[in-house]
């Protein structure tokens, strides 16, 4: 008649798993698996939008190329570089998660959040230029695009704002999460391994989505 | 073991305050939060259905206006699908039972579990606001351009409500998957997992992978309404049929969210009341996963007449036939489980047997409509309505009630009057068939869905259908009465009134806050009926 204990005795007071878990290891595995599943869900969320975009891109190639040519490739390129770098700094933060590296952890998290913020600022600049150039077909604003592609260019810019807007929203959430990690790190909370790893997974996903958004939208005009 | 339950500390009597309920992270209490709220939505959606059947009792449109009728069936569909059927079994019985069945203290993420319920409530609030502000006339499917260019209702409120409820079901699914992967008791290998857990696991996969596509699709509708971006607007080259593809990419898998958990419940009940191990356990578990996976590849059968190419139609038709294979495996295995069992007909068993019969009719007519040539004839008729009601109501709602009756003693520690239970089960079965069988004939004769008037020659069948509705309604109201009655006056159940084998029956009823006084170690298959008693049973008696 074998039983295991209902409440495990923790080795040290601080190293106690949440009550539903038997061990910290089990908790860590559950937390990361949960995050991976969430990411799978996120991929399908964006996947629907990507698929719709690809269908229209194939249906109206000239219009989409013409419209894509109006995006600011330089700012978009800079933003891509920024976001990729932020993934590197996030990884470095993850690497420095053990208590003896607290300073490095704080530093890398701060840099990551900063890079994310710079991305959003640049994105905002792009938006304002596009609004001024009458390329934003939203809120019933005027939309100017030369014939014969006016209508399908509207479609392109609808996707542009939907995709980049949703991505920016995700990035904003990512920045908030990283700032929370930063606050925890500064307050000296022990055992951030699981939390920082999970925040990192989310951050990398947001980066990865941009890696698809960028070529689909910005490079459509510049292929082959 | 049948000590007075009011003395023993359990998850119910440890704190009765409202605040303790609204902030609980105990999966068993969250199950109750869901149970109460989805019951409210069930009767809300039922009220809309009653008005629909009332209107259809006569050929003329005499009870409600055309426009009101459109709003009624839309409300009915939206409420029943997203606020009753999708969460029904997983969020109530699943939440309550999965940790008990796998020998865990709780789900992996108890706080997230509570958040799921709050999201559900917020989504529900949007839906109520939508209904109060005038409703929508799009149907539950929100097809463009009814929901975009020509929308004249509260589309934004409606889709936001559904999106929020969708996040609730994503989080529930995520929680279940991680719980099943990481929280199983020692010795509980995947091959010893009860089929109810397998069924909810398969459902959870669909919830996590399909629901986000619904979210983005409906979000695009909301953006289209709020910002005027034109992704489904033909004026700028958008394609309204693309909406249908995206919608059904979620909603066909979602129909399996609305049946797989029922299959899990029925498997548990049938083995218990046949006193036999489930026939073909491996095949049963495999079939659940197969249905979940193939279910992702058949959405095009909703677009046979929407301008889909012939080749796509043929492929989707074939793939739809393929879903019938694992579904058939399940029905045959239930039958084989009954064969030579010592079958008894307590209330849960009546529901389970009702499920098997009605699901079979629903599944076979599913194959019928999946044949492209036949579908051209019956698409958008009452035939389709009857098909999916046989599965969703005849199947899932039956299973939900069966499960509720099976595990009620575990959840409450009380036994309900079995005679009333049987009367209700039979009433529901009769009322259901009377309501929906005539609709197969109506549809075949050509009565289209979603109209509130019809030619005189259809009246007889419509009157039959409308006559079934009150019978069905009484059948659904009865349990509300005697189950509530049993809470106070029912006899004490004891830990295992059905002499069932699952782990959940090894702990007192109602279970203690952390489920087991000592967490179990599993040494046997889940359905050890007809085998020697477990060690732990021996220790108890
Ligand atoms: C054997 C498996 C099944 C097959 C082959 C099948 C096939 C089909 C087909 C071809 C249609 C489209 C008919 C038309 O619109 O003309 C349909 C409609 C429908 N089916 Fe099934 N089905 C199956 C199982 C299910 C299950 C398990 C459910 C729900 C739990 C379900 C719910 C529905 C619903 C809700 C609709 C109509 C949706 C609407 O247009 O409002 N089906 N089915
Ligand atoms: Cu379908």
In N-to-C order, the SSE pattern of chain B is HHHHHHHHHHHHHHHHEH
Strand content of chain A: under 5%
CATH architecture label of chain B: Up-down Bundle
Oligomeric organization of the protein chains? heterodimer
Q: Which labels suit this protein?
A:
heterodimer; A: 224 residues; mainly alpha; Four Helix Bundle (Hemerythrin (Met), subunit A); 6 helices; 72% helix; disordered N terminus; B: 541 residues; Cytochrome C Oxidase, Chain A; 17 helices; 66% helix; globular; binds protoporphyrin IX containing FE; binds copper (II) ion
Secondary structure elements and pairings:
The complex is a heterodimer of chains A (224) and B (541).
Chain A (H helix, E strand, L loop, with lengths): L2 E2 L19 H36 L1 H8 L4 H23 L6 H31 L17 H37 L6 H26 L6
Helix pairs in contact in A: 1-5, 1-6, 2-5, 3-4, 3-6, 4-5, 5-6
Chain B lengths: L17 H5 L4 H29 L10 H20 L2 H14 L8 H23 L22 H28 L12 H33 L12 H18 L2 H15 L6 H14 L15 H29 L8 H24 L1 H7 L3 H31 L5 H28 L13 H31 L29 E2 L14 H6 L1
Helix pairs in contact in B: 2-3, 2-4, 2-5, 2-16, 3-5, 4-6, 4-7, 4-14, 5-6, 6-7, 7-8, 7-9, 7-10, 9-11, 9-12, 9-14, 10-11, 11-12, 12-14, 12-15, 14-15, 15-16
The complex binds protoporphyrin IX containing FE (HEM) and copper (II) ion.
Copper (II) ion (CU) binds next to helix 8 of chain B.
Describe the structure.
- The complex is a heterodimer of chains A (224) and B (541).
- By secondary structure, chain A is an all-alpha fold.
- Chain A has a single domain (19-218), classed as Up-down Bundle (Four Helix Bundle (Hemerythrin (Met), subunit A)), CATH 1.20.120.80.
- Helix content of chain A is 72%, strand content 1%.
- Chain A has 6 helices and 1 strand.
- Chain A has helices spanning 24-59, 61-68, 73-95, 102-132, 150-186, 193-218, and one strand at 3-4.
- Mean pLDDT of chain A is 88; it is low at 1-13.
- Helices cover 66% and strands 0% of the residues of chain B.
- Chain B is globular and about 65 Å long.
- In chain B, helix 2 packs antiparallel against helix 3 (66-85) and helix 14 runs antiparallel to helix 15 (418-445).
- Chain B contains 17 helices and 1 strand.
- Chain B has helices at 18-22, 27-55, 66-85, 88-101, 110-132, 155-182, 195-227, 240-257, 260-274, 281-294, 310-338, 347-370, 372-378, 382-412, 418-445, 459-489, 535-540; one strand spanning 519-520.
- With 541 residues, chain B is mostly helical.
- Chain B has a single domain (22-540), classed as Cytochrome c oxidase-like, subunit I domain (Cytochrome C Oxidase, Chain A).
- Chains A and B meet through strand 1, helix 1 and helix 5 of A and helix 6, helix 7, helix 8, strand 1 and helix 17 of B.
- Residues 141, 255-256, 258-259, 301-302, 320, 323-324, 327, 363, 366-367, 369-370, 375, 379, 384, 387-388, 391-392 of chain B line the site of protoporphyrin IX containing FE.
